[in-house]
Amino acid sequence: MVCLTIAATAAAPAEIERKIDALLARMTLEEKLGQMSQAGFGRLTDQRRAEIRKGRWGSLYGGGTPAEKAEAQQIALKESRLGIPLIYGQDVIHGLQTTFPIPLGQAASWDPELVRQSARIAAREASAAGIHWTFSPMVDIARDPRWGRVAEGYGEDPYVAAAMAAAMVRGYQGETLDAADSIAACAKHYVGYGAAEGGRDYNTTWIPENLLREVYLKPFRAAKDAGIATYMSAFNNINGVPASGNEFTLRQVLRDEWKFDGFVVSDYTAVHELIAHGYAADAKDAAFKAIRAGVNMEMVSTDYWDNGKALVDAKQLDVKTIDEAVREILRIKFRLGLFDGRTQPVPSGAQAPSAEALAAANKLAAESLVLLKNDGALPMAKSVGKVAIVGFLADSPRDQSGTWANGSAGTVTPLAAFRQALGESRVLYARGLRNGSDTSRDGFAAAVEAARAADVVLLFLGEEASLSGEASSRAFLNLPGLQEDLAAEVAKAGKPCVAVILAGRPTTFHDVADKMKAVLYAWHPGAMGGPAIASAILGDAVPSGKLTITFPRTVGQVPIYYNHLNTGRPPAAQEKFTSKYLDVSFTPEYPFGYGLSYSKFEYSATKASAPQVKVGGKLTFSADVANVGAVEADEVVQFYTRQLAGSVARPVRELKGFQRLHLKPGEKRAVTFTLSTDDLASYNPQMKLATDPGAFEAWIAPDSASGEKIEFAVVR
Ligand code: NOJ
Question: From ligand 1's centre to the CA of 201, what distance in Å?
């Protein structure tokens, strides 16, 4: 039998470490195992009170009402033997009282500063409700839109996801973790969860180490560099070993290589699920393997508590390993100020979103809107006579809030926003369908009638909130139910039609788009989705969002992502024996980085500060971007590179930078990106990170599928 001893990982302020030493010296094994346990969701019963008094729990999931949280914390601090505080964790994913767009929508803003502000507001609201810790951000890279959890992440690109991960951590954790309005963040799901085979949630993942390091781990590393307090170990099996028992990812990468000194919580019952994975023989083995791997805290299942003592008694686990796991938990509790009188607020009554928070939600929703098609129908003239609004998603607060919303307080639906903007009498509303699974066409006639009576039709189509998020994978990506038929019927009325699509993932809607004069993709835009959409459609704001995930033409193209390898036979339209399909194009419907504006931007050729750079040096790339259209607008400028040959083949393009510009009509700005050769490094077959000398290309471009490239060389 192995007796496992793991050395302390990282240095932290000496005073905290001394206090932890003193506590550990006094703690019983039971109290240590208690710290390593998070109780499942539940109210504060007498049994729970008694357990807290005994030190049975280190953390409560949710923890009940703010008043219950305050009472439980008092019990922990005053009535438990050592007065160790509880840490309350909860899913605050895109807002607490104020619902911001789903993360995939937030990413489409390409505006990390605005994303940081949304997390700051969420942290203020959460801390005021007595929550210490949010299970966010989710930074799983996803290349498969069938996976319902694409809604919760930032898309397919590691650079974008890393920028958003860092922004979220800074937003939640603020300047210091112990500030009254800071909460601890938790980067999840560590790691590889987004690569679920077939896009089926919880499914197995196979990710070669170079891909793991270059793509899937990148945003997690950015979270570490931004000072994240915790990680959540994922549900999935990765390369044969479940993520919640994986010593390579949790010990070697996270602790040894990255020197992370906070703690890891398992996902919900993920420790016990090591048995179903076929990795642990029983609950005792599951506890052993998860602790050995470095999962400090077990969420909801109780294998640590039930078996920890037996594992130590049998000398299978050294108490030092337990101590180290507890130390990392206590360290975060100290950093949060939980030992030092952090107040446990009890707000009076239900809290409503503030005007300031709603304004921020409106701004982020507006920036997240992606204009996919526009034959001149948008912006819609305000002088237009009557507008028909068709579709249940025009007036469904719950659905526009998206997955993991904590309510829909203060929500303004698109229908309400258009009525407000145009006056009730000019807005004709017909749901057409009750919801996405409605099989009755009874509502079509009223929708067609509204379309006939109107001058313009706005069709609100897409997915309900319940179709994305956890355990919400889909095998098809089409607009669910009879929505395509509804759109076709309404289009026959012959009025100009604009589709606004609300969804938690890329969907496929090629035939619908053909019938539309314009298509605006709104994701699940949150509380202020209505006003943001109305402003964009009426031209009070200009859409500026761009996709951070590729939109396929059909589900059969999945996985499809922009930063793929070239193959030996890259697809060529006229050549049969190339890498493509016989029945559909190899190109996406809308590429990564794509999004239109009401204005027009022109890019000059990309220039480099020198034709070559020595390994270790830097180059500057620049291009002039001009607003040659008629309106003031934002443009998201993207910077990509490609390595043409080296010790491994590299993707056809990789994002290395982006900037959001605001330009007046006629205004031109020089945009520059500085590239260090370290930014070009990749893992060679020996898993060494190195920059290969050789030929490279670079683009400053509006999206991943366009732009003029320039060549440059990296030399020794
Ligand atoms: C399971 C989900 O995978 C995770 O994202 C979430 O934070 C936990 N449940 C807690 O609710």
Answer: 12
Q: Per the omega criterion (within 30 degrees of 0), is the bond before 94 cis?
A: no
Write down the residue that tokens 């003592």 correspond to.
309
Buried b (16+ CB within 10 A) or exposed e, 174-200: beebbeeebbbbbbbbbbbbbbbeebb
Paired tokens of 179: 């500030």
Alpha helices (H) in 27-111, listed in sequence order: 29-35, 46-54, 66-74, 103-107
Q: Is 267 a residue of the active site?
A: yes
146 CB-near residues (< 8 Å, 6+ apart): 198, 199, 200, 473, 474, 475, 477, 505, 555, 558
C-alpha 713/C-alpha 716 separation (Å) is 10
CATH 2.40.128.110 given to domain 601-715: no
The catalytically annotated residue of 91, 111, 261, 267 is 267
Atom of ligand 1 nearest to the CA of 89: 10
Q: How many CB atoms lie within 10 A of CB 10?
A: 12
Q: What is the C-alpha separation between 409 and 250, in angstroms, rounded?
A: 38
In CATH, 2-346 is 3.20.20.300:
yes
User: Angle CA(617)–CA(620)–CA(621) in degrees, nearest 5?
Assistant: 140
Report which of 20, 26, 86 is spatially closest to residue 55, judged by C-alpha positions: 86
Return the domain boundaries, the chain: 2-346, 370-543, 601-715
How many whole angstroms separate alpha carbon 567 and alpha carbon 622?
A: 30
Q: How far apart are CA 132 and CA 178, in angstroms?
A: 10
d(Cα 472, Cα 520) in Å, to the nearest integer? 24
Give the per-residue pLDDT at 12: 57
Provide residues with CB under 6 Å of ligand 1.
Answer: 91, 135, 188, 267-268, 470
Amino acid at 549: I
d(CA 554, CA 585): 10
Q: Give 370-543's CATH code, choosing from 3.30.70.20, 3.40.50.1700, 2.115.10.20, 3.30.40.10.
A: 3.40.50.1700
235-266 tens-digit pLDDT? 999 999 999 999 999 999 999 999 999 999 99
**Count of C-beta atoms within a 10 Å radius of residue 478:** 16
Question: Could you tell me the pLDDT band of residue 554, with boundaries at 50, 70 and 90?
Answer: very high
CA distance 153 to 342: 31
* pLDDT over threshold 60, residue 183: yes
- pLDDT tens for each residue of 1-30: 444 444 333 345 899 999 999 999 999 999
User: How many Å apart are CA 394 and CA 400, to the nearest integer?
Assistant: 9
- Residue 279 has a CB neighbour count (10 Å cut-off) of 19
The helix (run of H) or strand (run of E) holding residue 212 is none
